[in-house]
Design brief:
heterodimer, A: mainly beta, Methylamine Dehydrogenase, Chain H, 4-stranded antiparallel beta sheet, 0% helix, B: alpha+beta, 3 helices, 19% strand
Chain lengths: 372, 98
């Protein structure tokens, strides 16, 4: 029987939640690395027991941890993230040039085929790669070397590269997203990059349809259709049917189209999920009701999923990397909150229950579907 | 032999209890102690000072014999009491927060 492992990163440590395929009874293991900020943990698709974790602290900087046994034991691997060449400058909040400075790893994306190869999205925005299981990290400089780099400006959370999508049908193609520069695509394995922001409109920037400068919060794809992308932007939910060459808005009847995470059902590529948040200055759900919204039509028509979720006095947030799906039948979906709850649905969102309620604020959630 | 006291998070990271002891060759300075510490415990590289610039991380402080050495030259000699092992060299995570 299949099992599920959910990797949870929080502001004060990591947790590993496990259940059998029924997904009713969960074990909660942790905290691992107590007191450290765990921005992201993710397992290798090629070896699910190989897990990488980003551990950081305002005091002691960045550590990368690796587990070879599914999160039971861990070893620290390389933590040297040095920009390629002379780093140069990007724009600061006030528009002045600011030197590129490494702060932390936001997202780790293991290769689809090689457990020793991992991509790291970092703040200040850059893409790094290891090919030796995390011992050594090298920048892929083509991204920051894109001519627009000096004009990138941080979002409120920093100039972070937070999303990395690998195309399962084309090993040379990947997508990344940066707050607040936008989305980019490479078709040559990372040597050169193309901004893919046509169709995005962002009020509040000098040119609301600029080539770069958009605050993209998250991108998602279904592995069977890698040319179809879904985006939760700062405001607006968007989709692209041409690998990001152009985008159209699919916010439709959402109560608000601000939010952070977006994800796709494991077996239905047109079924997508978002968590609407009231506004960028009020990081909590509208009306005090925690509602996941599901669209079965790839956007525009949305239904509220509320069974088992608090429907009064709820004022928490769900961050961009804090939603994930498993690949069981029915599809399981998981998300973590700033209030420390991890909610799970074993029926594609129809009903929900909390696996655990009182963790530190949740930053990231990744589900793994395991054999046996 | 220099005694070095680490903050709790770095003791956990290095998998050590209590103080650690490092041996320096040549003059015992803050730089030579940190070099020896990172050589003995590579996992601490980058956590106390920057990998490239070797500058102290902003929320890390260095003390010994009741003195704050954080702003002293890294190549200045450490106090006799530290060199002789009577007193530890303290690496401290600054108190910060509200």
């Amino acid at each position: 029987m299949s099992r599920v492992r959910v990797l949870v990163g929080t502001r004060k440590g990591a947790f590993v939640l496990e259940a059998d395929g029924k997904r009713q009874n969960w074990s909660v293991n942790g905290p691992f690395f107590g007191g450290w900020e765990m921005y992201h943990l993710k397992g290798s698709p090629a070896d699910p027991n190989r897990i990488y974790a980003s551990q950081s602290s305002g005091w002691f900087g960045q550590i990368v941890q690796r587990s070879n046994d599914g999160g039971k034991t861990w070893e620290a691997v390389g933590n040297k993230f040095v920009y390629d060449g002379v780093p140069g400058t990007h724009q600061w909040y006030d528009g002045t040039p600011h030197p590129w400075e490494f702060k932390r790893v936001w997202h780790l994306e293991p290769s689809l085929t090689d457990p020793d190869t991992v991509y790291a999205g970092v703040e200040d925005a850059a893409l790094f790669r290891t090919t030796d299981g995390g011992q050594n990290w090298s920048e892929m400089p083509g991204l920051r070397g894109h001519g627009s780099g000096p004009h990138w400006q941080p979002g409120a959370g920093g100039l972070c590269l937070h999303t990395i999508l690998l195309d399962p049908s084309n090993p040379k193609r990947m997508f990344i997203a940066i707050s607040a520069a936008g989305a980019f695509r490479t078709d040559d394995g990372g040597t050169t990059w193309l901004p893919i922001n046509r169709g995005l409109k962002s009020q509040g920037i000098p040119n609301e349809e600029a080539e770069v400068g958009h605050c993209v919060h998250r991108i998602a794809m279904h592995r069977s259709r890698p040319n179809v992308l879904f985006m939760q932007k700062h405001w607006d939910v968007m989709r692209s049917d041409n690998a990001g060459d152009s985008w159209t808005e699919v916010s439709g009847n959402l109560p608000t189209d601000f939010g952070f995470p977006i994800d796709v059902h494991a077996h239905e590529p047109e079924t997508i999920y978002v968590v609407p948040i009231k506004s960028d200055s009020e990081h909590y759900p509208p009306d005090g009701k925690l509602r996941v919204y599901r669209s079965r039509s790839g956007g525009n028509e949305w239904e509220a999923l509320t069974k088992g979720l608090p429907q009064q006095d709820c004022y928490l947030n769900v961050l961009r990397d804090a939603m994930s799906v498993d690949s069981l039948d029915k599809c399981g979906i998981y998300f973590g909150t700033s209030g420390g709850q991890v909610y799970a649905s074993a029926d594609a969102g129809d009903t929900w229950s909390a696996i655990v309620r009182d963790l530190p604020p949740v930053v990231s959630v990744e589900a793994q579907t395991l054999d046996g | 032999m220099i005694r070095v006291a680490l903050p709790a998070h770095l003791r956990n990271l290095a998998s050590v209890d209590g103080e650690v002891v490092v041996e320096v060759t040549g003059n015992a300075t803050q730089r030579s102690v940190l070099d020896a510490l990172e050589a003995s415990y590579p996992v601490l590289s980058g956590t106390i000072r920057d990998h490239v610039t070797l500058k102290r991380r902003p929320f890390v402080r260095f003390f010994a014999c009741g003195q704050d050495l954080s702003h002293e030259p890294l190549d200045a000699l450490l106090p006799e009491e530290v060199v002789g092992g009577k007193e530890p060299y303290l690496i401290v995570g600054a108190m910060a927060g509200g």
